[in-house]
């Protein structure tokens, strides 16, 4: 087992390029391997193919939104056990409720506070 | 008055002089003054009537007035005359008449029965006043109010959109500055040189983000789109949570937060997030304006105005506020001193928002302060916030400003009320009044349309506000038809009219009777009787 393979892998599903760039760089610096998808549909495909350890899912996504993507993942035996953390815009309570209803394991608000998000990631990865 | 036994010629002369004097008064009137006999034929027609309607006295005397009736108001004059023959008078009935040239003119008509010395009905006196100008002013005012409201809604929508658009790039600014700061910390080759500047970028970004959130909150409140989510929570626990979160902020200025909550505070029902937001604002203000002192956060339960309240007080030992400053304190963007904003940070909107949120929940935020003596801000809230309930004032001798809530909670929808009135201005005024009271008005411009809307719209309306005088199917016919329809028979009907027809209204089964113009308070009182049980507040934010 190489070091590369032992690193825990996080899939970021996020359409905003800057958010994707920041989050991936910050997580990589914390020692995670990061996969990225820019919309819900490719996020679901990547999750099936790559089996990441955890998914950070933006709720507002083109094509297939975060709620629908999460529901698809949680309804599929191959992906249902991958923990999903929903990322929602600051004041969107409605998104948060929808995310939890769709089966997300936790949620965090954007802008991301890295320490808080890391704590949530660690808790879900055990 | 002439002495007994005065000469008959003298009496005649005196009577004649009086007649001439009265005729001169009638002729000098700006208003149309017209008399009719019992058959509705014109017996006198003054200069005012000539000016208003274009017909001369010679043309009108001996003829019925129906020539003035516009085709869309058939039988209106006959209906009015029938009332007068029953001995009833009509006060300022607003309608439309046709001039000789065929031009429509808005008039207010008052009609009184004329009786002879024995009290026998001999005809009617009609006074018509030209209200074209007033009608135009009404319509302009209504249009102006609507334009202003629409502009305000547009502004709120714009702010909401812009706020969202501003947030996205701002998140990138904050995020990258944080990221660079993290890297600078780890990069030992002189990275720390940049750390302070990167933190300034991040702090400025966060300040801007807070400002945008506040502006968005305020625009939501103003647009009536802020929704309350009520839950029951433990007061003491909530207070400790607030104090805990603000501990680091207090420490920055060397302040200590002291909590004072007596045992047995129990729980309250309110919007937890918004109560917290209010207290955060008050406590963080206190921390900002106090150095090396104490910020005291207390809560008590109070009885006032037959209700139970929870009273939160935030006291500091800070710089205090002068009386003049207090007056401007709750205005948006008005920090007591312009320079204090730069000195102490903050958006200047916290107090405005806190007060608005408190008022939405039926409470208020008030202040008691003296320059140099520290300040005490009080947040008072009903122990059981009830969005549908009537506002009750928290009174007493604590120096609280009485709280009055002109707008009912916009989120509380009490149901549909059908307004049937052919006059669009009157209809719109009633509709606005209903909206203000938390009802959804549905407007119908005729009796036929009203009846159709009442029948077709699935569940019947909560109540019907019904005008009597309408062309075509009048209010009485609508009322009778409703009472015969098993679906609608139980819907309370509030009859509005300019005529004194109470007996007919009761006989036909009207629930209430209001004289036009309708007074807001009267209508609101009546509707309150029919208010359905409060619906749960919607669980989403707009």
Give me the strand/helix succession of chain A. HEHEHEHEHEH
The number of distinct helices of chain A, counting runs of at least 4 residues, comes to: 6
- As a percent range, the share of strand residues of chain B is 15-25%
Main pleated sheet of chain B: 5 strands, antiparallel
> Which residue ranges of chain B are poorly predicted, with pLDDT under 50 across at least 5 consecutive positions?
336-344, 389-412, 534-542
Q: Mean pLDDT across all residues of chain A, rounded?
A: 87
**β-sheet strand percentage of chain A:** 15-25%
Q: What gap, in angstroms, lies between the N and C termini of chain A? A: 21 Å
The number of helical segments of chain B is 16
Helix coverage percent of residues of chain B? 40-55%
Radius of gyration of chain A (Å):
13 Å
Backbone shape of chain A: globular
Shape of chain B: elongated
Can you describe what's shown?
In chain A, strand 3 (54-58), helix 4 (66-74) and strand 4 (84-89) form a beta-alpha-beta unit. Chain A is an alpha/beta fold and 126 residues long. In chain A, helix 3 packs parallel to helix 4 (66-74). Chain A has helices spanning 3-6, 17-29, 40-50, 66-74, 93-101, 114-125, and strands spanning 9-13, 33-37, 54-58, 84-89, 106-110. Chain B is an alpha/beta fold and 542 residues long. The A-B interface holds A 16, 18-19, 22, 25-26, 29, 89-94, 97, 110-112, 114 and B 164, 167-168, 171-172, 174-176, 178-179, 182-183, 209, 213, 216, 229, 539-541.
């Amino acid at each position: 087992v190489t070091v590369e393979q032992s690193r825990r892998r996080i899939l970021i599903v996020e359409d905003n390029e800057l958010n994707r760039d920041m989050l991936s760089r910050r997580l990589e610096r914390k020692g995670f391997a990061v996969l990225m998808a820019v919309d819900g549909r490719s996020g679901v495909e990547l999750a099936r193919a790559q089996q990441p350890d955890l998914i950070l899912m933006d709720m507002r996504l083109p094509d297939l939104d975060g709620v629908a993507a999460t529901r698809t993942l949680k309804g599929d035996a191959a992906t249902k056990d991958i923990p999903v953390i929903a990322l929602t815009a600051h004041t969107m309570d409605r998104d948060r409720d929808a995310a939890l209803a769709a089966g997300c394991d936790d949620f965090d608000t954007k802008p991301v506070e890295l320490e808080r998000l890391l704590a949530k990631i660690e808790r879900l990865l055990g | 008055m002439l002495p007994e036994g005065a000469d008959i010629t003298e009496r005649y002369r005196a009577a004649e002089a009086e007649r001439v004097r009265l005729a001169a008064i009638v002729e000098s009137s700006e208003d149309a003054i017209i008399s009719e006999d019992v058959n509705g034929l014109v017996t006198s027609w003054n200069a005012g009537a000539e000016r208003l309607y274009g017909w001369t006295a010679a043309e009108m005397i001996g003829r019925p007035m129906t020539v003035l009736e516009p085709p869309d108001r058939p039988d209106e004059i006959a209906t009015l005359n029938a009332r007068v023959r029953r001995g009833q008078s009509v006060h300022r009935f607003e309608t439309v008449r046709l001039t000789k040239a065929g031009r429509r003119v808005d008039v207010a008509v008052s009609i009184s029965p004329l009786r002879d010395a024995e009290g026998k009905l001999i005809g009617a006196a009609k006074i018509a006043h030209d209200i074209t100008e007033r009608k135009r002013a009404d319509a302009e005012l209504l249009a102006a109010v609507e334009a202003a409201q629409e502009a305000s809604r547009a502004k709120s929508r714009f702010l909401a959109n812009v706020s969202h658009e501003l947030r996205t790039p701002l998140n990138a600014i904050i995020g990258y500055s944080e990221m660079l700061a993290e890297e600078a910390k780890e990069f030992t080759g002189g990275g720390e040189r940049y750390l302070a500047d990167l933190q300034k970028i991040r702090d400025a970004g966060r300040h801007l983000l807070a400002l945008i959130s506040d502006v968005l909150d305020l625009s939501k409140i103003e647009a009536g789109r802020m929704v309350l989510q009520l839950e029951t929570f433990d007061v003491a626990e909530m207070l400790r949570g607030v104090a805990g979160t603000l501990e680091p902020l207090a420490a920055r200025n060397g302040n200590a937060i002291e909590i004072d909550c007596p045992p047995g505070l129990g729980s309250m029902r309110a919007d937890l997030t918004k109560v917290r937001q209010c207290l955060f604002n008050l406590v963080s203000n206190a921390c900002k304006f106090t150095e090396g002192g104490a910020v005291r956060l207390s809560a008590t339960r109070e009885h006032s105005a037959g209700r139970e309240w929870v009273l939160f007080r935030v006291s500091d030992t800070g710089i205090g506020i002068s009386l003049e400053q207090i007056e401007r304190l709750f205005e948006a963007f008005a920090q007591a001193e312009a320079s204090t904003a730069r000195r102490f940070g903050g958006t200047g909107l916290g107090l405005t928002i806190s007060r608005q949120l408190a008022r939405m929940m039926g409470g208020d935020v008030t202040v008691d302060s003296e320059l140099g003596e520290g300040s005490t801000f009080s947040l008072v809230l009903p122990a059981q916030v009830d969005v549908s309930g009537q506002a009750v004032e928290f009174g007493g001798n604590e120096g609280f400003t009485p709280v009055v809530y002109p707008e009912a909670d916009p989120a509380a929808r009490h149901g549909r009320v059908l307004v049937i009135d052919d006059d669009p201005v009157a209809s719109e005024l009633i509709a606005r009044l209903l909206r203000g009271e938390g009802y959804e008005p549905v407007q119908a411009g005729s009796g036929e349309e009203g009846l159709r809307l009442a029948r077709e719209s699935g569940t019947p309306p909560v109540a019907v506000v019904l005008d009597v005088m309408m062309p075509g199917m009048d209010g009485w016919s609508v009322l009778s038809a409703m009472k015969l329809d098993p679906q609608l028979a139980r819907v309370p009907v509030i009859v509005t009219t300019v005529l004194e027809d109470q007996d007919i209204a009761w006989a036909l089964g009207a629930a209430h009777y209001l004289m036009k113009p309708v007074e807001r308070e009267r209508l609101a009182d009546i509707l309150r009787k029919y208010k359905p049980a409060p619906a749960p507040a919607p669980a989403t934010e707009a």
